[in-house]
Amino acid sequence: MQRSQLDRRTLLAAAGLAGVTVFSARAHGFVKLSPVLGAQAAGRTLVLLQLSGGNDGLDTVVPFGDDAYRRARPTLGLKKNEVLALDDYRGFHGALKQLRKHYDAGRVALVEGVGYPEPIRSHFRSYDVWHTADIRGRDAGDGWVGRLCDAAFKEEQNPNLVVHIGGNVPYALHSTSHPPASFVNPRAYRWAGGAAETEAYEQAGGMQPERDEKKPKKRAGESSLDFLRRVLADGQSSSEQVRRAVAAYRTPIEYPTNDALSQSLADVAALVNGGIGSRVISVEMGGFDTHTDERNRHDQLMRTLDAALGPFLDDLGRSEAGRDTLVLMFSEFGRRVAENGARGTDHGVAGPMFAFGHGLKGGLYGQHPSLEKLDDGDLVHSTDFRSVYATAIQRCFGVKPEKVLGAKYPLLAFA
403, 148 in Cβ contact below 8 A? Predict the structure, then answer.
């Protein structure tokens, strides 16, 4: 195949098959992708786990000792014998047995009543608030992790600094200067093209990047196609590092093989220990928009979540890098207090947020919101989610949180 025959469609197909996608908040383009791969920056790793759809906090941390809970949920409400009691008022959903074990060991910080002022009940708009840490959403610019990277790693050009495992890159990771690498399934990464596709792919990525460049830019007389070939070569190298880190990881911990979250968290553990310089790793679990048949659906979600988180936290405890890892689990909003006519719950506001780790101070933080003093049927938040972000920023990266969040928020004592 002649170089002139490598048309746009072939080139884009080759880029997609490279196994790594690099995103920019501005143009979804190849922006500041570094040719310097594998730099190992010292410090803790932050893992973000989003429960997408609006997790029902009252069916996760259950206020079984509150009469108002039973009145609001005559069919959905969990009874005391269905809850793993933490005290006389609240307890974990009965399926969260492994999570309870880690809580008792001091590895779980439960922050109650988390939300933000003037809350939004739209999935997409509230999602944007959480991912930018700004009520303006995407109008505020880069995601909060993107701003964190600007503050903590301004000169760092490792393209594996921020990694998302999954199909949809969260807006929190969008950055004009530190775009994330995204892998749907790093352990299954392989080249699946035929001879013609292989030739096109090799031509697309065949030019070796120059390692003395701080960031890619077009050279004098270089065509846009040759520039893209060089960037693709860096993408191939980044992808290969991630693939090798996942393939080489060995652990005696057994993860369930029948669900995507468990396998994604197994990949996260591999990257934490892989020495490729990943400092923020993101994963997502969907299915939490439980408007109907919530009891059955949410029970299954809790079983799946516990089956994945239990071995993952066990696995992190096996290494220094794992013990230095902080995991934040959140959802874009909670559910309304009262069940609806379809035996589900509708979009609400406040809910619990979790921090996991072997080096944190576990226990209860914040204040469980009143189930009787409601705002139009919704819980009133008692802790701004940006306080949790601020604590993680300070703990993991040593950056003043206001540089990332634009304002000061009270830090929590779990760090």
Answer: no
Q: How many helices (H) and strands (E) does the chain have?
A: 12, 13
Q: Please give the C-alpha separations between residue 220 and each of 11, 139, 216, 223, in angstroms, as whole numbers.
A: 22, 35, 13, 9
Q: In which domain, by residue range, is 218 found?
A: 3-405
- Between CA 346 and CA 330 the distance in angstroms is 18
For residue 412, being part of any structural domain is answered with no
User: Using only C-alpha atoms, what is the Rg of the chain?
Assistant: 22
pLDDT, tens digit, for every residue of 74-98?
A: 999 999 999 999 999 999 999 999 9
By residue count, the chain amounts to: 415
Phi, psi of 395 (to 5 degrees): -70, -45
C-beta separation of 205 from 198 below 8 A: no
For residue 77, what is the DSSP state? P
Record the pTM: 0.82
Task: Check: CB of residue 322 under 8 Å from CB of residue 273.
Answer: yes
Report the number of distinct structural domains present in the chain. Answer: 1
Q: For residues 40 and 145, what is the distance between their CA atoms, to the nearest angstrom?
A: 19
Q: Is 347 helix (H, G, I), strand (E, B) or coil?
A: strand
CB 377 within 8 A of CB 337: yes
Provide the strand spans (E) within 292-350: 326-330
